[in-house]
Amino acid sequence: MIDRAANPQLVAQAHGLLASRTRWSVLEIAFWLVALASIFLLQSKHLILTEIAILALFALSLDLLLGYAGIVSLGHAAFFGFGAYCAGILAKYGIIKEPVLALLASGIAAMALGFVTSFLVLRGSDLTRLMVTLGVALVLREIANRLEITGGADGLQGVVMEPILGHFQFDIFGKTAYVYSLIVLFILFLIARRIVHSPFGLSLRSVKGNPLRASAVGIHVNGRLVAIYTIAAGMAGVAGALLTQATQFASLSVLDFERSADVLLILIIGGAGYLYGGLIGAVLFKLVQDYLANVTPQYWQFWLGLALVMMILFGRVYGAVMAALIFAVCTALKLPFMQSIVFTVAVVATLGIARPHILRWTSAITARAVAVQAGLKARFTRKGSDHAPGA
Amino acid sequence: MLTILFDGIAYGMLLFVLACGLSVTLGLMNFVNLAHGAFAMAGGYITVVLVNRLGLPFLGALPLAFVLTALVGVALERTLYVHVYAKTHLEQVLFSIGLVFMSVAAVDYVMGSQQQFVSIPSYLQGQINLFGVGIGRYRLLIILICGLLTVALQFSLMRTRFGSRLRAAVDDARVARGLGINVNAVFAVTFAVGSGLAGLGGALGAEILGLDPHFPLKFMIYFLIVVTVGGTSSITGPFIASLLLGFGDVAGKYYAPQFGSFIIYIIMIVVLIWRPQGLFSRAIAK
Q1: Does B228 reside within a domain?
Q2: Whether pLDDT at B20 is above 60
Q3: What is the pTM assigned to this prediction?
Q4: Which of A26, A169, B14, B28 could form a disulfide with A163 if both were Cys (CB 3.0 to 4.6 A apart)?
Q5: Confidence at B233, pLDDT banded by 50, 70, 90
Q6: ipTM for the assembly
Q7: Is residue B172 part of a domain?
Q8: CA dihedral sign, ordered A67, A69, A71, A75
Q9: How many Å apart are CA A274 and CA A182, to the nearest integer?
Q10: Residue A133: closest CA among chain B residues belongs to which residue?
Q11: pLDDT of residue A97
Q12: Which of B203, B170, B237 is nearest to B25 (CA)?
């Protein structure tokens, strides 16, 4: 190890770098102001906003794993569901009545579970990790299905929540639940932000980049992975607990495979590795899902699947646009679902065959967009410096 | 006891036919195809349509299920899958989950969400008594067909020129290419056969496993267990793994129903931790 005192200039420089990364940008502040404004401006939408906040927290926890530590997981719902059932059981049997304390307790319980199972993901390739995490979630689901205390397939019914901190009663319009969820999301976001900008977070990124080299420069790889897995599990557990507290119900669906798949999809939509991906992805996902579920109540998963396929084939933005276009054509022509399926399959197959050409066009568009952006930026900064005093 | 053993073997054989295509895709191209169950479902529904609506004989519908699913498989492989081989495992997983979602919703709409039954001819129903053991005729048929298929697969893999090309491509695709083997063509054929087998398995299994639009999601984990436990480098590994899984599942449900499918999940996790390459695989030097 380098003696820290030996090179104070270097240490100061490193601190400066770290500090500049942690500074809040205008966009970030605006994002949270919008979230704050939604409490007052979107009164009638509080129920779905609560769901979005919970989903965002869940996706944030997966982002810590996937985006920063490079751990793939197909069973992140295990911790979400564990937290959800913990909160439900704590409230139903009156063990911890106060919601905030129960939330903390559920988070800690999920962290404990995350710590224990983290040792399972240390070994093996991505494929092994995908399978093992999936297996853990399935085992938990099976346990919840069998146990008496979780209510089995009927779910955990009869959960009644006490007022938060003894003051704020959960109301029927979901205002309390939304404010509560948003505050929890914000606090945990701050913690996540602190973590990823700390030296610990940087070392995680190096582990993601190349574990062998990371260990060569003295990073204890397995220790970092265990730590981040535990933290992420705790966050997912808090998200699950929030869901139970807001809906006063927990069912087996909190542990479903679809939930793990959805949260991955959210992160893919929003982009992993910059914290806001999960939040933005959650907003988009929930809005689209809500819209599709209204338009095609039973078959919205078809369009979701289409979006996934296109996004993997053609990249995030172009794929999403193409999927949206296909959907828009189907709706504009008022095609029955049968014809929509045939149409979609035909279009997707054609696009698949033409993929090399399409990729050439899309990369040309991207290059053009990047050039325009760079041009704008250059002009903007020149103007900025013109006005700056003393320049 | 012997009846359970027999049922377990039939179940295991069925799982093997369903999953062996996946084990080859995973082993050959290192491609995680979670949509494998969708092909099995396609085969099942094709049989339902052929037998129940068009009135074809059940045994005649089985080869058709194989061929049609194989055609679907190769069409998808050539248009879509081929672009995803080079992507990461995570992207492959998401891509194939997308396909699963699409197929589930489409089948749900076209065929309805209720469980479908294939009308089995009367000579395949009921039991025969063999040395005091009750043996279901249908299960006997499954064992016969799947047993024959296994032998045929093993033979074609080990004794034919195509088999040796395939094995060469599994072991090292680059060197195989260097030797003039058209790895892509080999893979397309293998993918077609694998999905065709899944379709056949789905057709045979509709009676035992139940067939509804959520089939691909429900049985995905079983296929994955077979492949991960059995390893992907040979065909005997998945075969033994499916027999063990089939027997374990049937026996577990019979003797310890309170544990449900819990045991097999735990076994999978333990095996993965203990031998990430699978129980029966030799280590591939790379």
Answers
A1: no
A2: yes
A3: 0.86
A4: A169
A5: low
A6: 0.84
A7: yes
A8: negative
A9: 19
A10: B269
A11: 81
A12: B170
